[in-house]
Amino acid sequence: MSYYRLLGLNREPFSTSPDPAFFYQSEPHRAILANLLIEFRLKRGLSVVLGDVGTGKTTLARKLIQMLKEREGFLFHIVLDPTYPSEDLFFSSLIRTLGIGVAAASPTLIDYRELLEQYLFHKSIADGQTVVLLIDEAHKLNALSLEALRILLNYETNDAKLLQLVLLGQLELLPVMRGMPNLADRISLKCQLKPLDVGETHEMIRFRLREAGYRSPAPLFLDEAVGTIHEFGEGYPRRMAMLCHRALRELVMRRGRVVDRTLVDALVQADREAGWEPSHPLQKHVCAA
Amino acid sequence: MRSVMADLPRKDTAEEQLLRLIEGAQPPKPDAPPASGGSSSGPSWRNRLLQEWSAASSHARMRWHALFRARPRGGDTVLRQLRLAGRFVWVALAGLGIYIAVTVALVPARRPQVAFDTGRRPGREAVKPPSPDTLMKPMADYLSSVLQRNPFTGNSGGTAAAPVQRARERLKELVGSLVVVGIDRGATPEALIEDKAQGRTYFVKVGDVVNGAFVKEISSRGVIVEYEGEEELLQ
Asked: Of A124, A139, B79, B130, which one's alpha carbon is 20 to 30 angstroms from that of A277?
């Protein structure tokens, strides 16, 4: 039996897998999702979502795909790791991702571009579909790949882009795109995922516990514990979820009833003593819209 | 910390309101199944029909499975017995339905036979209802045939000469002392008959019985009486 069943839960509440069901939508998250859908409907082209490590970019992408599945007229694809050493490989991978058949035995870059153009024209104009391409970990894109994407964004009619592109990446992508003005100028939507505040942290924990099947009126986390979790996790959902998971596991081992500040402090202290301090510098840039 | 179950309704953000405005004519599909490969091409009405049929058939399969094939886990004997009883009830109802359908469709309708002898005993045949011919005859003929039956000998009129002779003699004996005193030829003819042997008078009309003889007719000529088919005119 899993430990969470002893707490009256049906599923693990604080898994770090990008399950859309456990994606807590704060108001900023909801605004970002709504803005992205608006951009798709209006066929504006390029949208960029930046966020620090552990802010929920991948989970947001999964949630966005779930929302697109509920709507008609969308063809969506996601690239999880856009690490390509050359432009040819990037287009080749893109062709495979979109499911486009290649007739030529040794296709060249021009062949790839033509195939992509025909595919986008056929799907967007003839079939009336909206083709959406999500690229996660977009900060791994090199200049050649970004240039290739810029070319794809050139495929448009008089009033709409044929390809709706969403780049989700860490803040390192920002200076790269700033260095490409011809691409940066095409960005229609710019948004950033920020850490959660204390109130949102409360809501996130409650939401996850409820989704995992917790129905008891007695809280599992005291307010003081949530405050400590937020303080240690600095509002980053992944870090806080991992700490909550460890706290519940410790609670079960100690046969306790509720996670209090003492328990959380003990876990944090154990990490510090072992040398597991936060290694990445927290960047709190504010992007110009 | 607030109760886990305390949920306040979330207010839409401005972006969500705008999205709803844009998608006003294109609302999201409810409960759309996840598509493998991420495409949603093809006619929307066909996809919707396929999804609805798939959901309906899936729901029907789930109900069938839950009703007939699901095995309860653990040792819940009461639940197991209830399920078994439910299955028996379904089988019985189905059998009853089939029986009724076969009975109505194959077996011709039979009219119930009414027994006129309500006091009949088991094993005895029911008395046949009177035929239309019998019903059409006058009451006098019916009474005449009843009186002609001799319950002791079983004769009903007889055709032999000896029985006729005996009937004639008997009639003479019965009405020999009767004389007609007067006749009232009104709406219902009546006759005043005097029995000189006993010194008694009788008012009789057609159908009456006097001294064992049946009054058959009253006219200006006299009164005709009948006994076992033999007639005598009293004057």
From this structure: A139
